[in-house]
Amino acid sequence: MINDSFPHWIEALSELQVLVLRSNKFHGPITAPTRFEIELMKILTIFTSIDLSSNNFEGQIPRDIGELSSLRGLNLSHNNLVGHIPSSLRNMTRLEWLDLSSNKLSGQIPTGLLDLTFLSSFNVSYNQLRLQQQRVGATTSCTVDELSRRRWLKA
After folding, report:
1. Three-state DSSP string of the chain
2. Which of 40, 92, 111, 133 falls 20 to 30 Å from 66 in CA-CA distance?
3. pTM for the complete prediction?
């Protein structure tokens, strides 16, 4: 079990495609130091799967996470993440599964996530999230629980 902050050493793993660091004691925000951001983002565009679940990460989900264009799976569940789900996640057009459950996320689920055609599993349970639905001439709001009837959404 590793007890440390976000592993900045992953920048040196230029061929890494799957990153699984679940069930450790990583803590602090999920960020990279400023001087490494550009280089780190170049490396992260070859990842296909990232699992940072069951740690103690806190703070917000980084907005630039949407730049991970090749990602097929992302698991940030069972942490202490707060704030909104970044709307930039809609840019992850190859995403097949997304698990943000068991955090402290709040606000609305970005409607752009509903347009991700490959997304077959989307778990945001155990958060305080709502989805704003647009209809012709009206706007309605519903809870994640109300959406749980959709097969791809676990609430």
Report:
1. CCCCECCHHHHHCCCCCEEECCCCCCEECCCCCHHHHHHHHHHHCCCCEEECCCCEEEEECCHHHHHCCCCCEEECCCCEEEECCCHHHHHCCCCCEEECCCCEEEEEECHHHHHCCCCCEEECCCCEEEEEEEECCEEEEEEHHHHCCCCCEEC
2. 133
3. 0.72
